[in-house]
């Protein structure tokens, strides 16, 4: 079953401006080391950050919280597997929220898809709950 969906469009020029203005303060507050490493070795640094920014916004929507003040952005993080496909990893408050959403007997899977075409970066996030084999307390 689907537990949540979220989408976001981020303006790459706006992210480039924020990077220029706030530099490492913005980088380290919002992005994990893995995300920073990926972006900083790319030709399109701002575009890579913008896709990950959009992914965090989309994930917060899929989690049903949206972006509140004081949110820990790094608790929603994008990593790429060997094929290049992005995966979303949640920790802290985002992991707790995901656990609250997930019915007993199910495991949550977060799907994320990213794209960019200057000046826009876009993300979709779908949260799926999959039945756990043999779970005794599953709600149907
Ligand atoms: C996946 C692919 C369609 C991306 O298309 P694109 O027009 O170049 O780029 P877009 O801007 O639309 O999307 C880029 C995003 O696609 C995502 N992506 C990359 N590979 C992906 C894959 N295998 N599956 C799902 N999503 C993928 C990434 O999130 C990427 O952004 P990121 O690297 O910053 O995380 C293209 O790279 C492709 O055909 N790759 C397959 C061939 C290949 O090179 N394989 C290598 C490993 S097997």
Overview of this structure, please?
The protein is of the alpha+beta class. The chain has a single domain, classed as 4'-phosphopantetheinyl transferase domain (Ribosomal Protein L22, Chain A, Alpha-Beta Complex), CATH 3.90.470. The chain is built from 4 helices and 5 strands, in the order βαααββαββ. The protein has helices at residues 12-30, 33-40, 45-62, 92-101, and strands at residues 2-11, 76-80, 86-90, 106-117, 120-131. The chain has a 3-stranded antiparallel beta sheet. Strand 4 and strand 5 (120-131) form a beta hairpin. The longest helix has 19 residues, at 12-30. The radius of gyration is 16 Å and the shape is elongated. The structure holds coenzyme A.
Task: Jot down its keywords.
elongated, 4 helices, three-stranded antiparallel β-sheet, 31% strand, two-stranded antiparallel sheet, 140 residues, Ribosomal Protein L22, Chain A, alpha+beta
Low-confidence stretches: none
Q: What's the total helix number?
A: 4
* Count of structural domains: 1
- Major sheet: 3 strands, antiparallel
- Count of DSSP strands: 5
Architecture, according to CATH? Alpha-Beta Complex
Strand content: 25-35%
**In percent, how helical is the residue content?**
25-40%
Cofactors and ligands: coenzyme A
Which fold name is given in CATH as the topology? Ribosomal Protein L22, Chain A
Given this structure, which CATH class is correct?
A: Alpha Beta
What are the secondary-structure elements, in order, as H or E? EHHHEEHEE
Rg measurement, Å:
16 Å
How would you write the strand order of the largest sheet? 1-5-4
Structural class: alpha+beta
Shape: elongated
**Nearest-integer average pLDDT:** 94
What's the CATH H-level homologous superfamily?
4'-phosphopantetheinyl transferase domain
